[in-house]
C-alpha cells in the first residue's frame, strides 16, 4: 500500500465529505511498503495520535520523533511523510479536517484572529506535542476523545467533534503565538520550489535525472538547487532520488514477475549491481530477499 497523489503530490484520497469535511482513520506504518508513507500534502489539517510504537515524522523542514501518546499537528497544505524508526512498527489515529468546521465563514472573528494566521502561513508546518508535557497531555486527551466520538457516531456526534476541535485549536493557537514557528521564512520562500522538485522526481524517476534537469525545472543554479533542497528536507537531492526509486521498486518486486535486472531498469537504475547495493543499504536486505520475505 502507498498514498496515491497527483502530479503536485496532493493526496487523492477524500478526507470526509463536503457537508462534513472530517475523517478518522486507523493506520499502521507496516501496511505501507518499506514501513513509510511518501511525501504528500492535502488541504485539510491533520492530527496524528501515536497509539503504539514510534514514528519519524517529517513535515516541511521539521523532523519529529514521536512515541506512544504523542500527537502531531500538520498544517493544511504542508508536505509531510513518515517512517518507522529503529525498526519499530507504529499504529496511529489520523484525523483530517478542514478548519472551516471551527470558523464557519471567512468574515468571522474566529477565522481572522485564530485560524487565518496559522492556515495561511505556508512556512508553518506543524507542532509536535509530547505526551509528557502539560499541553501535550491535553492535546492527547482531546484527540483521543475526538477519535472515540467519531468511531461511535452517536446522535449529535458531529457537534461534539466540532466542540472538541475548537477546544484543541485554542491550545494550538496559543502555542503557535508563543513559539517561533510563525516565521519559518526560508521554507516559506522555497515551499513551491521543493514541491516542484519532488514532483519532477516522481514524474521522471524512470529516466536518467541530472542535477541540471532538476535545477532547470525550478530556475535555479545547480549549487543553489542542491543547497535549498538539503537545507529544507534534511536530505541530499541525490539521496532523495535514490530512496524514491527504491521505494517504487517495491511494487514491482511484489506485484510482478520481472527480474531484478528488469526492475532496476524500470526505476531508473540501469546497473543491477548498483541497484542491489543501494536497495540493501536502504531496505536492510537484498531485493531477492525482500521479494521472498514479503511476497
Can you tell me the number of structural domains?
2
How much β-strand is present in the residues? Answer: 15-25%
The N- and C-terminal alpha carbons lie at a distance of 13 Å
Overall structural class, as computed from helix and strand content, comes to alpha+beta
Please estimate the helix content: 40-55%
Extract low-pLDDT stretches.
none
Mean pLDDT: 89
By CATH, the superfamily of the largest domain comes out as Regulatory protein AraC
CATH topology of the largest domain: Jelly Rolls
User: What is the chain-wise order of helices and strands?
Assistant: EEEEEEEHHEHHHHHHHHH
Task: Tell me the overall shape.
Answer: globular
Number of strands: 8
Label the CATH architecture of the largest domain: Sandwich
What is the gyration radius calculated from CA atoms?
20 Å
The CATH top-level class label of the largest domain = Mainly Beta
Main beta-sheet strand count, sense and barrel state: 8 strands, antiparallel
- The number of helices is 11
What does this structure look like?
The chain has 295 residues and is of the alpha+beta class. The protein has two domains: 22-183, Jelly Rolls (Sandwich); 186-294, Homeodomain-like (Arc Repressor Mutant, subunit A, Orthogonal Bundle). Helices cover 48% and strands 18% of the residues. The protein has helices at residues 100-103, 109-119, 134-152, 157-178, 185-204, 211-217, 222-233, 237-255, 260-266, 272-283, 287-294, and strands spanning 22-28, 36-40, 45-59, 62-67, 71-74, 80-83, 90-97, 126-129. Strands 1, 2, 3, 4, 5, 6, 7 and 8 form an eight-stranded antiparallel beta sheet that branches. Helix 3 (134-152) packs antiparallel against helix 4 (157-178), helix 5 crosses helix 7 (222-233) and helix 6 packs across helix 7 (222-233). It starts with 21 loop residues before the first strand and ends with a helix.
Amino acid at each position: 500500500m502507498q498514498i496515491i497523489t497527483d502530479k503536485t503530490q496532493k493526496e487523492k484520497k477524500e478526507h470526509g465529505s463536503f457537508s462534513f469535511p472530517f475523517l478518522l482513520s486507523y493506520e499502521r506504518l507496516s501496511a505501507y511498503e518499506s514501513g513509510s508513507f511518501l511525501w504528500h500534502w492535502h488541504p485539510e489539517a491533520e492530527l496524528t495520535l501515536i497509539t503504539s510504537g514510534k514514528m519519524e515524522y517529517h513535515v516541511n523542514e521539521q523532523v519529529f520523533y514521536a512515541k506512544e501518546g504523542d500527537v502531531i499537528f500538520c498544517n493544511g497544505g504542508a508536505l509531510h511523510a513518515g517512517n518507522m524508526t529503529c525498526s519499530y512498527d507504529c499504529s496511529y489515529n489520523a484525523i483530517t479536517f478542514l478548519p472551516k468546521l471551527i470558523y464557519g465563514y471567512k468574515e468571522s472573528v474566529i477565522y481572522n484572529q485564530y485560524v487565518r494566521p496559522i492556515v495561511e502561513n505556508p512556512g508553518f508546518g506543524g507542532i509536535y506535542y509530547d505526551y509528557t508535557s502539560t499541553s501535550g497531555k491535553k492535546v492527547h486527551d482531546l484527540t483521543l476523545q475526538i477519535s472515540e466520538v467519531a468511531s461511535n457516531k452517536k446522535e449529535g456526534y458531529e457537534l461534539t467533534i466540532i466542540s472538541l476541535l475548537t477546544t484543541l485549536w485554542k491550545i494550538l493557537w496559543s502555542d503557535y503565538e508563543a513559539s517561533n514557528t510563525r516565521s519559518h521564512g526560508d521554507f516559506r520562500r522555497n515551499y513551491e520550489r521543493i514541491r516542484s522538485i519532488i514532483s519532477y522526481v516522481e514524474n521522471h524517476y524512470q529516466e536518467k535525472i541530472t542535477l541540471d534537469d532538476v535545477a532547470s525545472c525550478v530556475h535555479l543554479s545547480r549549487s543553489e538547487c542542491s543547497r535549498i533542497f538539503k537545507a529544507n528536507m534534511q536530505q541530499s537531492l541525490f539521496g532523495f532520488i535514490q530512496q524514491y526509486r527504491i521505494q517504487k521498486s517495491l511494487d514491482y518486486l511484489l506485484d510482478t514477475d520481472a527480474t531484478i535486472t528488469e526492475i532496476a531498469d524500470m526505476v531508473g537504475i540501469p546497473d543491477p549491481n548498483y541497484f542491489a547495493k543501494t536497495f540493501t543499504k536502504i531496505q536492510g536486505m537484498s531485493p531477492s530477499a525482500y521479494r521472498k520475505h514479503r511476497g
